[in-house]
Amino acid sequence: MKDESRSAGSPAVEKYIIFDVEGRMYALPLERVTSVSHIPEITPIPDSSRTVAGVINHRGDIVAVLDLSRVLGGKGRDGKGSNMLLYEHEGETLGLVVDSISDIREVDAECILEPSAHLASELGSHVIGFIGNDEHPIIILDLERKIEELVYDRRANDIKEKE
């Protein structure tokens, strides 16, 4: 959430939730995360993308749950991961399975560094930047872009299967 009390010349500050997926630290804007919980029972969806862990019932609503490890190109949780972030995307709630949640941190916009060429090539277009250093970065994700890529890829696969 942006701090409106700062003067016009002051850097913008945003809060990020910091979490771990397969030994790497990531961050998402806290304003997009509505809840943090332990992983409830997930119901698998047959023939779904490998990035979709399944669905849960969250307060009477059916919520799709993504395996963030697989979304980021990893091997997947396979029973690991004990926490879930509920994330708002275009008015819909998505569950994101993560290994652990470590912190909530305020970050000045000027402290967000551009991703190195190595980091950008490894993680693709869904990295906004990072905080920290190259050896121990906390990678700030552009999950909106990654979710759109997943939806587009799924639609393209559905079209190919119908042809």
- Poorly predicted segments: 1-7, 154-163
Find the count of extended strands (DSSP E, 2+ residues): 10
- The H-and-E topology, N to C, reads as EEEEEHEEEHEEH
CATH architecture: Beta Barrel
Main beta-sheet strand count, sense and barrel state: 5 strands, mixed
Radius of gyration: 17 Å
The share of residues in extended strands comes to 35-45%
Number of H/I helices: 3
Predict the CATH topology: OB fold (Dihydrolipoamide Acetyltransferase, E2P)
Just give the CATH class: Mainly Beta
As laid out across the biggest beta sheet, the strand order is 8-1-2-10-9
Q: Portion of residues in helices?
A: 10-25%
Descriptive overview:
This protein is of the alpha+beta class and 163 residues long. It has one domain: Beta Barrel (OB fold (Dihydrolipoamide Acetyltransferase, E2P)), CATH 2.40.50. 19% of the residues lie in helices and 41% in strands. It contains 3 helices and 10 strands, in the order βββββαβββαββα. It has helices at 68-71, 117-123, 143-162; strands at residues 13-21, 24-29, 33-38, 52-58, 61-67, 83-89, 92-98, 100-108, 127-131, 138-141. A 5-stranded mixed beta sheet has the order 8-1-2-10-9, covered by helices on one side. The longest helix is centred in the last third of the chain and has 20 residues, at 143-162. The radius of gyration is 17 Å and the shape is globular. The chain starts with 12 loop residues before the first strand and ends with a helix. The model is unreliable at 1-7 and 154-163 (pLDDT under 50).
